[in-house]
Give the backbone structure.
Amino acid sequence: MEKISKIQLYCMMVVMTSPIAFLQAPKRLINLVDNNAWLPAFASIVPGILIILLYIKLIEKSRQPFPLMLEEHLGKIAGKILGFIYIGIFILVSSYALRLFVDFMEIYVQPATPISVLTGLMLLGSFVSLRAGLTAMGRICEITVYIGLSFTLVILVTAIINYPDWGNLMPLGYMSFKNFGIATWSASTVWSRIIPVLTIAYFIEKKMDASRILFMAVATSVCVIGLTAIATLLTFGAPFSRLLVYPTFAFVRLIQIGEFVQHLDIIFVGIWVLGVYAVLFITWFMACFTAQQVFGLREYRFLAAPISLIIGVLSIIMSNNIIEFRVVTLLLINWVYFAAFIIIPFIVLFIALIKPAANSSPLNTGQESEFQL
């Protein structure tokens, strides 16, 4: 069975939460609470901790990884039905990440390039990584996080130093509790994307080591999103930020270091694309692995090709333009995250807790059983 290191698990969880949220979250939060957008970004650490505890408890109470843990706690029939549904959910999330990449590239980078070309190139790269196996995917995520976090820190510090209009953050706390709650919930849905840990934690030496890894990953992503919201507000202010499709990318375009280092947006695009690429192949892996376990197949790699066609077609028909895509994000994707990645795991954990005889001992933190990969 393939193994990954703890640092690779950390990098995979950071990749699952940071790249997409880095581009999208500030805009959503500014629309809800204006100049206080950074407050719910940092406040989301509280529900993030609760989501981590939910997943860690599920890992502790389960002998098998997701989706086999569904059969372990819900019974074979119900577990397989729910596992089959999750195949579609992971395909949907993969298609969403792919479409976000395509729309961004069409608006800012290569507007004349056909959507099918961008979609095909992204799928081809992810397909190669998926076929290489989980260990290779972990190494790619390591490289992505090392480069991405370093560059992100540089551009955020530079933006805050270059455009320190602190009046854009005032008045502090002048917002309704309702909007603050909605904004915090919106930011919190990001943390549910760490659900692959329910599978990947079983590929490290001791699965319960995933606990502190998740806390570090979520803390890292909270700081990235919170500082990004601050940098966006300092640069543009809330009124102008609401008019921009991706205000994060807009302020990156303005950044320059001294009089000679300019056009950092080119570097940003390359790193951000690498991050979305990693999100795509992790969720794609989850779809393939879930299908393998649900149908009792010998391996998952041969499923990558047929599933790629579904992901590609679904990403294209998901919306006709950026406006429809924003509606899909608010009215579909966020609720899918909430229902499939929070509510259902909570129900499964509740059932696991009231049926302790069916579970492994919580004191055993190693690998309790083998499964096919």
User: Anything to note?
Assistant: The radius of gyration is 20 Å. The chain has a mean pLDDT of 85. The chain has 14 helices and no strands.
